[in-house]
Automatic annotation (TrEMBL):
Stated name of the protein: Site-specific integrase
UniProt domain Core-binding (CB): residue ranges: 83-183
Entries under SUPFAM superfamilies matching the protein: DNA breaking-rejoining enzymes
Organism: Bacteroides muris (ex Fokt et al. 2023)
GO BP terms in the entry: DNA integration; DNA recombination
PROSITE patterns: CB
This protein's UniProt keywords: DNA integration, DNA recombination, DNA-binding
GO molecular function terms attached to this record: DNA binding
Keyword DNA-binding annotated: yes
Domain of life: Bacteria
Length: 391
């Protein structure tokens, strides 16, 4: 059990002869101290945890009690059993009076995403927050989140939620985005950012690209089931449109458009989030768009799923389509993106152009858009060359 009380340490008298009032933290038979901003001139002015004999004693005692209560509330939000006394002190030293709770920051962040029309992404962030709340148990204050919190949350996602490195990295990126926005909004400040020492887990490289002939098989398939036709067309649209991700494809308004121009959902709210991908819609994509486009200009397949459930449904149906037409490779929606890049690279298309088309760096730690500015015509030429390879 961790105990807190107000104390004065006679041996630590200041050069001026005054004494700092401290918070004594008792944990696992060890006592450490946190210093408050309040001083007394003489030891006789402190008795039984109270300041006495000074004109503003009641005010000082009220402030000290408030500090003590905030520290106690912070302790109530965590289990200190696995902490050393030094770690408890480190945790409490990050607590600032009047700080906002994590729930407030995360709710504001998600509401803003929904106002921007990014409801599907907002739902993914909600899942991250549910995981974090399950881990932390109670509503932690923003300034109570430390590098240790982040490290232990990552371990929790791995061991308790059984998430793979890529999925864990995604949830950690969501959490970091929420904290960064809270810092920008002046809801919290950190001497050491909670993610200062975090290293994104390395996922296994997924070999999901398929051959040109296998892409042709998918394109030329004639399934009778609506769900399989949908799977075929979504896969081919991604391939035709530069490996566009499903969430970006489903949000795009195709009405009266000959070009596609968008910012990747994954890149929004990042330092490079204002960079747009733009190229002409190739002729191969137009019949598919026309068949499935709803009145609002967006693709509409008639299913009433949430985005997350729709994505899972698409993944299942693409896999089933591939099996039905005899493709032995592991095929998912993402295979269209991987294959687009692989086929383009094999045709000698520059890496910079491919990076522009898909909006993602192909080399670890190398940011996109830092080299040459790839204009739409370069992307059009590249896409045309790749699609001609299917003829």
């Amino acid at each position: 059990m961790t105990t807190l009380k107000l104390a004065v340490v006679p041996a630590k008298m200041l050069k001026s002869g005054k004494h700092k009032i401290r918070i004594a933290i008792g944990h696992k038979q060890e006592t450490r101290y946190l210093v408050t901003r309040f001083n007394i001139d003489d030891l006789s002015q402190f008795k039984d945890g109270q300041v006495i004999g000074i004109p503003n004693a009641s005010y000082v005692n009220m402030k000290l009690r408030s500090i003590l209560n905030s520290y106690q509330e912070a302790l109530d939000r965590i289990s200190t059993q696995s902490y050393t006394c030094a770690q408890v002190v480190e945790y409490l030293s990050n607590i600032k009076q009047g700080a906002a709770p994590f729930s407030s920051a995360s709710t504001d962040y998600i509401i803003n995403m929904e106002k921007e029309g990014r409801k599907s992404t907002a739902e993914l962030y909600r899942r991250t927050c549910r995981y974090f709340n399950d881990f932390i148990k109670l509503d932690v204050m923003l300034d109570g989140i430390t590098p240790r919190t982040i490290k232990e949350f990552d371990v929790y996602l791995k061991n308790e939620k059984n998430l793979n490195p890529v999925t864990r990295g995604t949830h950690m990126a969501h959490l970091k985005a929420i904290l960064n926005q809270a810092v920008r909004d002046k809801k919290v400040s950190y001497d050491t950012h909670p993610f200062e020492y975090y290293e994104k887990p390395e996922g296994n490289i997924r070999e999901l690209d398929i051959s040109v002939d296998e892409v042709k098989q998918i394109r030329d398939s004639t399934p009778k089931e609506k769900s399989l036709r949908m799977a075929r067309d979504l896969f081919m649209l991604s391939y035709y449109l530069g490996g566009i991700n499903l969430i970006d494809l489903m949000q795009f308004n195709f009405k009266n458009r000959d070009t596609i121009e968008y910012i990747r959902e994954k890149s929004k709210n990042t330092k490079k989030g204002d960079k747009k991908i733009s190229f002409s819609i190739p002729e191969e994509a137009k019949p598919i768009i026309k068949e499935w486009m709803g009145k609002n200009g967006k693709l509409n397949f008639g299913y009433k799923y949430t985005y997350d459930n729709f994505r899972k449904f698409v993944t299942k149906e693409i896999k089933r389509l591939a099996e039905n037409i005899g493709i032995e490779s592991h095929v998912v929606y993402y295979s269209a993106r991987k294959s687009f890049v692989q086929h383009g690279f094999e045709l000698g298309i520059s890496l910079e152009t491919l990076e522009y088309c898909i909006g993602q760096s192909m080399k670890k730690n190398r940011p996109i858009f830092n080299y040459v500015k790839i204009m739409r015509k370069h992307a059009d030429i590249a896409i045309r060359k790749i699609l001609d390879g299917l003829k």
